Amino acid sequence: MNIKGMSYAKIQITAALLKLIQQKTLNEISITDITKEAGVGRASFYRNYQSKEDILNQYMKRLLSEWYEKIKGQPTDHGTWQLSLMEHYYENRDFYMALQKAGLSNLQLQNIIEVCGPKPEDDNLNAYFHSLLAYSVYGWIMEWISRGMQETPEQLYEMLKKLQQ
Q1: For 69-100, b where at least 16 C-beta lie within 10 A, e where not — what string?
Q2: Contact between residue 86 and residue 157 where contact means Cβ atoms under 8 Å apart
């Protein structure tokens, strides 16, 4: 887990929840379970997070921000960002698969919409395009995850290129 810019408590709490979500559903995990696993007090939890979902959401935002920083400044053709995004999901597949298993795919959709979905300042054409883009990315990623991410990012990208021909 990348710890740059995160407090000790946040690192421990996030790591604890990521470990626990591999073993139990989110509903079965209590705040006490998380703080006990993290070795921090309840006050540390509530000082940093509002809910269990908040932990996952902040972690996902951190992952997506790191991905964005990595591709920023690179050529912006479709292939570059598509392959890079697939590599991001593949590198973090344990986390994203755990989210889906926990029934929290809606958090992924919210984050994808924040990154590439429509913005209030978009005119109608751009809003519709960004909506299509966000929901397409979400659908394609969710299907890949639900099928166990069997393909490598390169294989999936080649499949996508064939569809675009």
Answers
A1: eebeeeeeeeeebbbbbbbbbbebeebbbbbe
A2: yes
pLDDT tens-digit profile of 126-164? 999 999 999 999 999 999 999 999 999 999 999 988 887
Q: Where does residue 156 rank: exposed (0-12), middle (13-18), buried (19+ CB within 10 A)?
A: buried
What DSSP designation does 24 have? S
Helices (H), 24-51: 31-38, 42-48
Question: pLDDT for 60-100, tens place per residue?
Answer: 988 988 888 888 777 666 677 888 989 999 999 999 998 88
C-alpha distances in angstroms, 85 versus 5, 58, 151?
Answer: 23, 18, 14
Task: Report the alpha-carbon distance of residue 67 to residue 49 in Å, rounded.
Answer: 23
Rg, Å, the chain Cα set: 17
User: C-alpha angle with apex 63: 49 to 141, nearest 5 degrees?
Assistant: 115
Q: How far is CA 127 from the centre of its chain?
A: 22
Is the separation of the CB atoms in 89 and 96 below 8 Å? yes
